[in-house]
Write a structure and sequence with these properties.
Strand content: 25-35%
Largest sheet: 7 strands, mixed
CATH class: Alpha Beta
CATH topology: Rossmann fold
Strand order of the largest sheet: 1-2-10-9-8-5-6
Number of domains: 1
CATH architecture: 3-Layer(aba) Sandwich
Structural class: alpha/beta
């Protein structure tokens, strides 16, 4: 449920080998993990459950401390739950996912789609060498609210402020699509591959 080919192509262009896999043994051997996602929260969690990947990911990320980067829906799945569905998320980030609600401002369209600035809130190896304000490409109707503000490393404003990127220990997430964000997204994927 993600833009797998584009992410793999950008990693290849940056000089990093990657494998697209849902094989638990292959995932356990990974040095780093990327969890991309496009679509609905519950369907994302169902897909992980049906492929028996939730326990594998828990083992890799919480026990073995393998770095993981969630992208778009993949970042939302890191939270405890979403207003979009009824299933619990992975719960690795103390946060929840809610829908944009612009009842009083009809000029703001849902989904939030296109380029938007993100401002650094907290230091992270994911952001090393990134300008204080950079631009990224977003496509989403739901956004993450962190209960622990130190987990929010990038913030974006689209009617309200929301977390554009998060980090807790070896767990990273970006709401935007780095594979569509040109040099800014390349820097994020390069940092994750080299520094996280």
């Amino acid at each position: 449920m993600g833009n797998l080919g584009s992410i793999r192509n950008m990693l290849k262009w940056l000089g990093f080998q990657s494998i697209i896999s849902s094989d638990p043994d292959e995932i356990k051997r990974a040095q780093k993990l990327i969890l991309p996602g496009v679509g609905a929260f519950d369907q994302g969690m169902k897909n992980l459950a049906e492929k028996q990947l939730i326990s594998v990911l828990n083992w890799c990320v919480t026990r073995e401390k393998i770095p993981l980067l969630g992208i778009c829906l993949g970042m939302q799945l890191l939270t405890k739950h979403s207003e979009e569905g009824k299933l619990p998320g992975l719960g690795w980030i103390n946060a929840h996912t809610i829908r944009f609600n612009f009842v009083n401002d009809k000029s703001l369209k849902i989904p939030h789609m296109g380029w938007n600035e993100a401002i650094i809130k907290n230091n992270s190896p994911l952001l090393e060498g990134v300008n204080k304000t950079s631009r990224y490409y977003f496509v989403h109707s739901y956004h993450v609210i962190c209960n622990d503000k130190e987990d929010e490393i990038l913030s974006t404003n689209y009617g309200i402020k929301f977390a554009a990127a998060v980090q807790k220990d070896n767990i990273f997430g970006v709401q935007f699509h780095p594979e569509k964000s040109h040099k800014f997204g390349m820097k994020i994927l390069d940092n994750f591959s080299k520094r996280c």
